[in-house]
């Protein structure tokens, strides 16, 4: 190795160390422990996409949806290991936006930060609205009242302390995990002991006897990929917690390495059990497969149980949105790519203005949804999928570029290298590209792609304006 390369590598290692030191001076408090990080990681992979969206996917793909979740789950693991490698190189709260800024360029960081912020605002709008609708199952209460109460409570929780956010997310995740494990155990009991109304017909042969494993062919399975990937959105949230984890070097790798068994149990395992008890032909779009399974079993309390679980899943997602949006806005502001007032923190170390601004937009979205529940609002909501996948694309691109520079000795090696990278990262990028193509083919999912160019134009113009006003700002210079 030449002396020039040694000097360059030493400079990279010093830069990495300095960046790591900067993490601790961001102003955040490391209030998230191992127990909370683990459940945030688990909860991020379980949402309404599974509890509700799987019904539509089953109707489209039949039992082959199990394979779609398994393959997509493998891709998600590749994405999370790529993120883990970056996090162990430099655990920062800005996460994807900061890595995009470093390894792709300032504009990429700008686009990633604002797009991920928009993803969570839109997701928060849909989830708090859904939570308000779920409340009508038990109470005759106006939807806007429930939405206001939920948003206010979650907003207050996120401002009090990051520890309280983590604790609330822990219990939200516990409800979801308990519900799925309970369903798996009940289905296993029916298959082995034959109790309940479904006992006489339950059989694993339902996985291939009703039209085969691919009843609508391979094309039917491929067309469900956007639904499958949507169900996994938010699994990357654990990366945003890096700057507030008590021991990120230990906790985050453990949380990321649980991804395979989480997907194997909560998605693949749950679907195998449900589709063995209830033939796939009895599921319908818009009806939760969990509700349908409970009804087939003759368990009348099933609908109420699932309604409660889906309510917690929606509130969990909104809670995560409150958390991540404030931190993304603060990261952008700290780098000169957003208004400076977003940098303000409370005494407990939570981003006051950013969280308040995002929560206010979520309330405006609820009002819009109440006033104009037509197609215009649905166009905006559909953008969540493509904007969420943009974060995954940036994670993979940044990991590939980081690995290249680290192997050349320009940057310190990560202590949590992604196995098989960069080939696994390239495969994951190709898979995401295929999903986007499937979205373009599907008329129901195509709407989200129409929104992307408009958002890109808004970001492009905004970036040029900010750069013109602050030509000396280092945030607009490639690192």
From TrEMBL:
Please give the name of this protein.
Amino acid permease
Residue stretches spanning the membrane: 39-59, 65-83, 103-121, 141-165, 177-196, 216-238, 259-278, 298-318, 350-370, 376-400, 421-441, 447-466
Where is it chiefly localized? Answer: membrane
Keyword set includes Transmembrane helix: yes
Give start-end positions of Low complexity composition bias: 12-22
Q: Which domain of life is it from?
A: Bacteria
Q: How does it sit in the membrane?
A: Multi-pass membrane protein
Q: Does the keyword Transmembrane apply?
A: yes
Where does it live in the cell?
A: Cell membrane
Q: Which family does it belong to?
A: Belongs to the amino acid-polyamine-organocation (APC) superfamily. Amino acid transporter (AAT) (TC 2.A.3.1) family.
Q: What is the lineage of its organism?
A: Bacteria, Bacillati, Actinomycetota, Actinomycetes, Kitasatosporales
Q: Using the UniProt annotation, give all residue ranges assigned to the region (Disordered).
A: 1-22
């Amino acid at each position: 190795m030449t002396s020039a390369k040694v000097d360059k590598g030493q400079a990279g290692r010093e830069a990495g160390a300095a960046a790591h030191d900067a993490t601790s001076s961001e102003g955040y408090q490391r209030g998230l422990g191992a127990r909370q990080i683990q459940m945030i990681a688990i909860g991020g992979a379980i949402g309404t996409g599974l509890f509700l969206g799987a019904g539509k996917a089953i109707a489209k793909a039949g039992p082959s949806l199990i394979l779609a979740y398994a393959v997509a789950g493998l891709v998600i693991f590749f994405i999370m290991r790529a993120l883990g490698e970056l996090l162990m190189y430099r655990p920062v709260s800005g996460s994807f936006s900061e890595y995009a800024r470093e390894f792709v360029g300032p504009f990429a960081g700008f686009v990633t930060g604002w797009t991920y912020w928009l993803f969570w605002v839109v997701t928060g709008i849909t989830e708090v609205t859904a939570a308000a609708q779920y409340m009508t199952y038990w109470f005759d209460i106006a939807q806007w009242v429930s939405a206001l109460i939920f948003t206010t409570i979650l907003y207050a929780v996120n401002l009090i302390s990051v520890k309280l956010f983590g604790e609330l997310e822990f219990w939200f995740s516990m409800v979801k995990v308990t519900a799925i494990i309970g369903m798996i155990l009940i289905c296993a009991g029916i298959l082995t002991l034959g109790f309940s109304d479904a006992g006489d017909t339950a059989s694993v042969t339902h996985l291939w006897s009703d039209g085969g494993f691919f009843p609508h062919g391979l094309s039917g399975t491929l067309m469900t990929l956007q639904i499958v990937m949507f169900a996994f959105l938010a699994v990357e949230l654990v990366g945003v917690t890096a700057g507030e984890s008590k021991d990120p070097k230990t906790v985050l790798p453990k949380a990321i390495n649980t991804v395979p068994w989480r997907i194997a149990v909560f998605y693949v395992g749950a679907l195998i059990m449900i589709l063995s008890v209830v033939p796939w032909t009895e599921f319908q779009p818009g009806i939760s497969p969990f509700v349908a399974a409970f009804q087939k079993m003759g368990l009348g309390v099933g609908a109420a149980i699932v309604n409660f679980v889906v309510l917690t899943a929606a509130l969990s997602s909104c809670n995560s949105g409150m958390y991540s949006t404030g931190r993304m806005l603060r990261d952008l502001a700290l780098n000169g790519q957003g208004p400076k007032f977003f940098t303000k923190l409370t005494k407990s170390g939570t981003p006051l203005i950013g969280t308040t601004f995002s929560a206010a937009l979520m309330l405006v979205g609820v009002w819009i949804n109440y006033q104009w529940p037509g197609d215009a609002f649905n166009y905006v909501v559909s953008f969540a999928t493509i904007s969420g996948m943009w974060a995954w694309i940036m994670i993979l691109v940044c990991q590939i570029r980081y690995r290249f520079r680290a192997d050349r000795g320009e940057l310190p090696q990560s202590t949590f290298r992604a196995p098989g990278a960069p080939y696994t990262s390239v495969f994951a990028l190709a898979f995401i590209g295929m999903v986007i193509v499937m979205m373009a083919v599907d008329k129901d999912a195509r709407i989200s792609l129409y929104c992307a160019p408009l958002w890109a134009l808004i970001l492009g113009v905004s970036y040029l304006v900010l750069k013109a006003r602050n030509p000396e700002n280092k945030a607009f210079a490639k690192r």
